C-alpha cells in the first residue's frame, strides 16, 4: 500500500506558527492523497548562541527533547498545548503526524540525561555526538519517543541512522512498537549496502531510497545517466522496494526548479511520474515543490533550514490554499500537474496494484537510455505510464507482453509525450 508523505517546515508556512497549519491547509494535504504530514523542526533546538548555525538555527541541533520551539507558538507559555492542538487538527483530517527523531547528536547546549561525547561528526559544529554504548541512552530515548507519542505524534523521521548502531536502534524500535504497535519509523539511509541491515536489524518501516531512485533520476535529468538504471535499482531492491521512500526534494536536497538542479519544474515531470507512480513505495512531497519553488532566496538551491526566510512560491501556495489567492501562471501550471499525478496515485492500481516494468519487451523507436514505460494494474483497472527523459517529443508504440493481455486488452499502445514529460493511458 503506497503511503504519501508531505514534508513541511511550519516556521516557513504562513505566519510560522502552529496555528497556521489550519483546517484549510490540512484539507489541502488530504486532497493530495497525503497519509502522513512530516512536521520538520518541532523539538526545541539551539538558538541565539554563538555556536548556532544561522538564525534561528538548525532543527537538527536539539537542546531540549521535552519541549517545542517557543517561536512556533502564538503564546509561548502554551506552546505544547498549541502543538497538541495542531496534532488534533491533523488527526481530524485522517492524517498521521510525523516529527524528527535525531538519534546521533544533540545541541552543544543540551541539558538532559542523554550521554554524549565532547565532539561532533563532520562539520556539525553546533552538535555533540551521543554515546550509544551506554544502556541509559536507549532508556532515555524510549522516554523521549513516548513523550512525543503521548503528545500526538504517530511517526518519526529518523535522522542519519547509519551513524548509530543498528542493534541499539532495533532495541529502541522494538520497545516503542510494544508500547504502540502502529508507530512508524522512516529512516534516512544513504548506503544501499545498509538497506537490509536497517530494515531487519534496526526495525525501520521505511528507508529513503536516496542512493537509488533519487540519485538515478537526478542523474538522468542532469547528467545523461541512462533510464535503464531505474530497472537495475528495483531489481536490486527486490521485495524491499515497497519499503522505500521515493522523492525528488527534501530539506537536504536542492530544489528541482533551482539553477542548481533542473532550472525549471517542467523538466522534472517524467521523473515525477516515475517517483510517484512506479511500484508501491512511499512517495514524499516537499512543501512548495508542487508549485515549482526554486529557493531563489536560499543558498545553492536549497530552502534554508537555518535562517528565517520567506520563499516566494511557498507564500503564494499558502495564500492560494487559505485565502484563494492567485498564483503566478507558471506556478499554477506546475500545481495542476502535481494535482494530476496525486489523483492517479490515489487510485487502487497505483496505490496497491501490481507493477510491471515494460522496458524489456520494447524494440523499434524505444530508446532504453531515455525512455521508461511500465504498467500498473488490478483485476479491475490497468494503466500504462510512459516517461520521456529526452529533449525531443516522442510518438511511439509501446508493446505489451502476452502475459498482460488480459489486463491491457491489447498488444500495443500508441503514446505521444512532450520532452521531459509523461503520458498516462487508461487501458
Describe this structure in words.
This protein has 427 residues and is of the alpha/beta class. The chain has two domains: 4-351, TIM Barrel (Alpha-Beta Barrel), CATH 3.20.20.80; 354-426, Immunoglobulin-like, CATH 2.60.40. The chain is 30% helix and 20% strand. The strands form five sheets. Strands 1-2-5-8-9-10-11-12 form an eight-stranded parallel β-barrel. A four-stranded antiparallel sheet has the order 13-14-15-18. The longest helix has 17 residues, at 329-345. The mean pLDDT is 97.
Topology of helices and strands:
Blueprint (H helix, E strand, L loop, with lengths): L3 E5 L14 H9 L4 E4 L3 E3 L16 E7 L10 H14 L3 E6 L3 E3 L19 E3 L5 H16 L4 E4 L7 H14 L4 E4 L7 H6 L5 E3 L1 H14 L4 H10 L6 E4 L21 H9 L4 E5 L25 H12 L5 H17 L2 H4 L2 E4 L13 E7 L4 E7 L5 E6 L5 H4 L3 E6 L4 E5 L1
Parallel strand pairs: 1-2, 1-12, 2-5, 5-8, 8-9, 9-10, 10-11, 11-12
Antiparallel strand pairs: 3-4, 6-7, 13-14, 14-15, 15-18, 16-17
Helix pairs in contact: 3-4, 8-10
Identify the notable features of this structure and list them briefly.
Immunoglobulin-like; 427 residues; TIM Barrel; alpha/beta; 18 strands; four-stranded antiparallel beta sheet; 2 domains
